[in-house]
Amino acid sequence: MRILVTGGSGFVGSHTVALLLDKGFDVTVVDNYSNSLVEAEGAIERVASARPEFCRLDIRETDELQRIMARVEPEVIIHFAGMKHVGESTQLPQEYYDCNVGGMLSLLTAARETDTRKIVFSSSGSVYGETNQLPIPEKRPHAPTNPYSTTKSVCERILSDLCTADESWSAVALRYFNPAGAHPSGLLGEWCVGPPSNLLPRVIEAAACEDPEDRKMVIHGDDFDTPDGTGVRDYVHVQDVADAHVRAIEVLNQPGLPSGGFEALNIGRGQGVSVRELIVAVEQASGRELSIEVGPRRPGDVSALYGDTSLARDRLGLVDYRGLDQICQDAWRFKSMHPNGYT
Ligand SMILES: NC(=O)c1ccc[n+]([C@@H]2O[C@H](COP(=O)([O-])OP(=O)(O)OC[C@H]3O[C@@H](n4cnc5c(N)ncnc54)[C@H](O)[C@@H]3O)[C@@H](O)[C@H]2O)c1
Description:
Radius of gyration: 19 Å
CATH class of the domain at 2-182 and 235-269 and 307-321: Alpha Beta
Number of strands: 14
Bound molecules: nicotinamide-adenine-dinucleotide
Largest sheet: 7 strands, parallel
Structural class: alpha/beta
Distance between the termini: 32 Å
Strand order of the largest sheet: 3-2-1-4-5-6-11
CATH superfamily of the domain at 2-182 and 235-269 and 307-321: NAD(P)-binding Rossmann-like Domain
């Protein structure tokens, strides 16, 4: 089966592309490398012993995207490309709407013209916003608290409306909570342009400092309404997230999705882990101690976010998610093997 993967050189995308290749899919990647390195291509090839086609392109270039799709004739699109930083989105809302919503519309235009009607979309658990109803079920209404999460909510709505209007479309939105970790080989992992903003890469970065004096970690807020006062999130191994995409392709190929061709599924372990607990897990994985400072909360951050994953487990047949220790061990291995990213 031919799959078009947007953003396939990024963190979740690269792990998914490697898994798709392993399983014998024919993969074309479209990425503008705004938040990934071209070195990811070689890393994917080493992990999967196969090479997808890579096209350097911004997905908002609709005409060129359409030309690529007309040539490749993908049966399914997996759409990762987008900007992903909550804090940055509060500073650059226009850029986020342009890239994430504009990018989705461009992709759907190209897909319509080339007759591709199945899409797996990277959504986010952050669409739920602040809630006391934990774990959060998929049916909970969206209440995004920042521009990034709003773009994800809008994109889901576009897909759902499209599937309602035209039954030849089907879409699965995977609402990831916090993808983390790295490929167990240590060859693929999380790399981003500039300092990391997600928590686990920041903790790993601090632990990796050669001088113990520099192993400092700032916790953004310890006055949240959580057991130890620090933010609680649901960390899920990136290999399990990749696996969920491969399984979602099967869901798209089943006749009659339950809700008019559109389905949203929570992708997480369904267990909350606090910032302090995550730091301890990294200290154990790395054998290095961190000194901790507490700073103010960041705009848009919510206290606790973890999903009810029973529907996703049922629909995707995912049962054994990797645990927090393995997430941290694999992330640490990648960092140790690639202190400067893929270089
Ligand atoms: N990592 C997370 O914590 C997380 C959580 C929930 C949802 N998501 C979503 O999952 C998707 C993948 O996340 P990730 O962590 O792999 O991010 P990432 O930044 O590592 O990967 C995104 C990739 O898309 C590319 N890209 C961005 N804009 C593009 C454009 N206009 N045209 C072509 N390529 C473009 C980037 O260069 C990058 O390679 C994103 O949409 C993100 O919002 C991520």
